[in-house]
Amino acid sequence: MSFLSRTVFAALIGALSSLSQAQSYPAKPVRMLVGIAPGGGLDTGTRTVANKLAELLGQPFIVENRAGGGGSIAAAVVTSAAPDGYTLLMATTTIMIHPAVFANLPYDPIKSFTPVGAAGTELLVISVNPSVPAKNTAELIALLRASPGKFNYGTPGIGTAHHLAIEMFKKQAGVDIVHVPYKGAALVTPDLISGQIPMAMMSVNTTLPQAKAGKIRVIAISSPVKLSVADWPAISETLPGFDASSTRLLMGPANMPREIVQRLSDGLRRMMASEDIQRAFTQQGAHWQFVSPEELAASMRVDLPKWMAAAKDAGVKPE
Q: Could you confirm whether domain 26-121+245-313 is CATH 3.40.50.720?
């Protein structure tokens, strides 16, 4: 057999092996890392996705929380894993902000991951403790302007979309408030309810039950959309053009086999078409829409410079 024939034969065997691997995938449980503590909006959404993918693909999808660093700890774990489809990351738009807020970041948001698809868009909400006298965005802005630097706000962490959304709000509203970062939204809520912090930016899913119970007051939602679960005004009604939301991104390590990516993508497509997922996402205050790996990759390439520019405009610096 000639060298060329041996090369072609080896390539054919490799292709058949990859195809066989993909056809049998998943053959064992899949880890799905999420970079926040249990109980937050992203955690709840991730568990919804994991349970449905397990049902559709026939193997457990086990959610593993690696809180801290605005999701960067979980992201770093995934980039160092084997690209075999058994270690995945559920991240958010936050990952596009990481280069702007973390010095010496051990990964590139584009090059270090294989996009699989989007798993809904998480809307964000400005909420306050009921003791805060402001009832709407205009009143909140007036209150904050009258007391520069005296109010603080909580978010799930430095470099999260929640953090940068408030920084964008600060700039557009012309207010001075102090950031208090937490390791996940579930840790923000008790302090907001107790009055330890007067205001916060959290997901709709995290906010909704506390708002219904009267434990916190919602000021406005971060995107100009209408929710079926709550009739909350948009920040843009007071600050024209304001729009900040957080897409849930399912990704794996760089260089995952195309066949395995397609298998996962097909699972996401079937998942998004199911009425129970659409109902669950609606109840969580998240938008649902199937996004292919190619579409996600293209949107990430657009989002990275957009969020980097927003971080620069907000005065966010790498730490």
A: no
- 28 φ/ψ sector (left φ>0, alpha ψ -120 to 50, else beta): beta
Q: What is the mean pLDDT of residues 39-46?
A: 82
Residue 154's DSSP bridge partners are 180, 200
Residue 20: what pLDDT?
A: 52
Nearest to 156 by CA among 118, 192, 110, 120: 192
pTM above 0.85, yes or no: no
Quick one: tokens of 133? Answer: 């006298």
Please give the Cα distance from 220 to 166 (Å, whole number): 12
| Distance, CA of 82 to CA of 86 (rounded, Å) | 8
Q: Report the C-alpha gap between 44 and 35 in whole angstroms.
A: 12
123-237 CATH choice from 3.40.630.30, 3.30.2170.10, 3.40.190.10, 3.90.1200.10: 3.40.190.10
Name residue, tokens 């603080």. Answer: 152
Distance CA 257, CA 83 (A): 8
- Residues 270-285 pLDDT 10s: 999 999 998 888 877 7
What distance in Å separates the CA atoms of residue 300 and residue 2, rounded to the nearest whole number?
Answer: 44
Residue 287 CB partners (closer than 8 Å, separation 6+):
120, 121, 123, 225, 281
C-alpha pair distances (Å), 90 with each of 45, 85, 115, 207: 9, 13, 10, 21
